[in-house]
Amino acid sequence: MTGGLAYDLDAIMTYLRMQEESGRIGALSVSRRVAPSSSLARPSASTWSSSAPPRAPARWDFRWKTCVMPSTSVCPSASGSSTDTRSRGDRPVGYSPWPCGQQTEGYGNADQRSTSSSSLTGQVERLIAADNFYGRRLREADITGCDSVEDFVRLPFSQKQDLRDAYPLGLAAVPEEKIVRIHSSSGTTGTPVIVPYTAKDVDDWAIQFARCYEFAGCTATDRIQITPGYGLWTAGIGFQAGAEKLGAMAIPMGPGNTEKQLQFMVDMQSTVLCATSSYALLLAEKVGELGLRDKIALKHGVIGSERWGEKTRRRIKDGLGIDLFDIYGLTEVYGPGIGINCRYETGMHIWDDFVYLEIVDPETGEPVPDGEWGEICITTLVKEGAPLIRFRTHDLSRIIPGECPCGSRYPRIDTISGRSDDMFKIHGVNVFPRQVEEVLALFPQLSSEYQIRLSHLEGKDTMRIYVETDGTQDFRDIADAVAEETKSRIGLTPLVKVVELGVLPRSEKKTKRVFDERYE
Questions:
Q1: CA separation for the pair 201, 385 (Å, rounded)
Q2: pLDDT tens across 53-86, in order?
Q3: At CA 85, angle to CA 219 and CA 71, rounded to 5?
Q4: Residues 14-23: pLDDT tens digits?
Q5: Whether CATH 3.30.300.30 fits 424-516
Q6: Which runs of consecutive H residues, i.e. helices, occur in 131-255?
Q7: Which residues, 6 or more positions from 44, have their beta carbon under 8 angstroms from its beta carbon?
Q8: Considering only CA atoms, which of 250, 231, 317 is closest in space to residue 277?
Q9: What architecture does CATH give domain 197-406?
Q10: Could you tell me the pTM of the whole model?
């Protein structure tokens, strides 16, 4: 860090505080940009205006949201034109994903959130005062605020194990009487993570989810069939809250009972399907088997919870005749709904007025330039119940440079390519499931389903890959070709087992792909 960088940033922060105090701006958020510092001169205070925000040098850009509640708004990413101008009272139906100063916002306006809690300094001070696990860590590191880039990079990371160690309510940063709900991660092993929510957290989550629906082209006239599970997991209830905030009809089916899912899909003429990719694929296959394609009215699919490849996407899209949208989120940070791709499918837009996202090297923890792959770290900007600072998600992605064709300037990340902790090692080779998927994608005669099983047989490790195809193919020829391609691309030769289409299990939740049986 150079002295010039700190000098510019201090001046910007002073200016932003003046603007906040005057009520001219709200919800301060921090976004990364790549820009040579030599091209950015420090402006004088007289040249600053609310329509032309100052830029920090190098990688950092501070932006704000205007505090204007419009009577109507549009979503260019959903339809490409302004057609829906209905409003409910003083809250518009649509959300306009335009940059500040060009269009005003609907859901998620700055005047709906506390500007004092949206700054990192406010979060840090609240955590220290709460004396929760992270507050104690900040105090031990002699950190009292976050007013500069130097301060931010000094903030310690938080990990999933830290959250487990805080069980049951060690994450809480507010008095217990303000906690209205808890959720827990969907993991089945180890100590669970308990995440407390305040009433504002619940509403903020619904606002973000409603924004996701609108980016997917949904309106108040849609009928949204929700198949993810309800309960401690954040899935189903988040999809429902977003639908209700949007004003659409929620059909809260929950998981399972595929026959009833299809009955309601036909009888209720559902127009939006919310599901994991595994269950959406199962429904698509059943719709084809039962000849229901002409009887359903689905238009959009909002899909999340697990990584899925292009082959799976194509089968769901063709089988149900719908547009597909990837939704992103995790239980520790609200839940699903903190970002979604638009119709241009150039990456997932992240709601950086609620969360700050950075990409770091999984091994060193150092930030990487925009465009480079690394691990997603998230800092919550306005969350009250359980704020998180620099939480390492282990999800692998990259920040996509440049602007999206849809016109939104919410930052974009690429499709999640995997997790930094799902790598396995065999014969000294580090392997990610994504690498196997890339090999299988080269064979159009294979389905999108596969399994990897690792075993220890006769003193050595073996990797078996199970794949599916139909009865018209030569199983031995396919197995040999896949094994050869895997050796060429990954560096080891697996045992490839080809089975009939439909033999590998489909799941109503997340599909498990890798089974390590070496140490059982």
A1: 7
A2: 333 323 333 333 322 222 223 344 444 333 332 2
A3: 115
A4: 444 544 454 4
A5: yes
A6: 133-140, 149-154, 160-165, 199-215, 235-246
A7: none
A8: 317
A9: 3-Layer(aba) Sandwich (3.40)
A10: 0.69
